Amino acid sequence: MANSRSRRKTAINSRAILSEYNKQDLEAHGIERWRPIYWVTRPEIRFQRALRSVEYWSNKTSLIARLVWSVKRLILFRVTLHTGISIPPGVFGPGLAVAHPGSVVVNSDAIVGRNCRVHSGTNIGSSSLGAPRIGDNVYIGPGAVIYGAIVVGDNVAIGANAVVNRDVAADVTVGGVPARVISSRGSDGIHPNYSRTAGRQ
Question: What family does the Swiss-Prot or TrEMBL record give for this protein (predicted)?
């Protein structure tokens, strides 16, 4: 859960990296730069900014930093309650776009790559064997459920209400219950930010 008390180490270990993550997250929403008004008008972006801030402060070890982290974690918890988005720190790479406020629940053991677009109703969960590992440039449609110790390749599109409980090869579209391959095109052409950040290192 996003309000976990654990201080999970993340990739955001400097202000420069924090700035780059925030920049790529905004780009994924089609926004060039942050504006304070988004804290009111764009709750999904407000959640992502709060998440990235917790990820940054989780790497700091001084007493003051621990206090700041506690405050940032409380802010994230409150934004989680307001938006319904529950994403733990350290799961998603840069370029995350949570498309809308609404129920999004992600297991803390999941690992998701760069440039992922997530829609409302998504649940990324674990089984007794582990949690999903999801590649770059993945589009997750509304209501999708992805669970278990599975691997989802790069450039995959997951259709609305799909249930994914086994590995998915790269560059395909899957849908249905249980999910199966329905197209070989993948997220290219579906993911609105695919061409802008695909392959960025």
Answer: Belongs to the transferase hexapeptide repeat family.
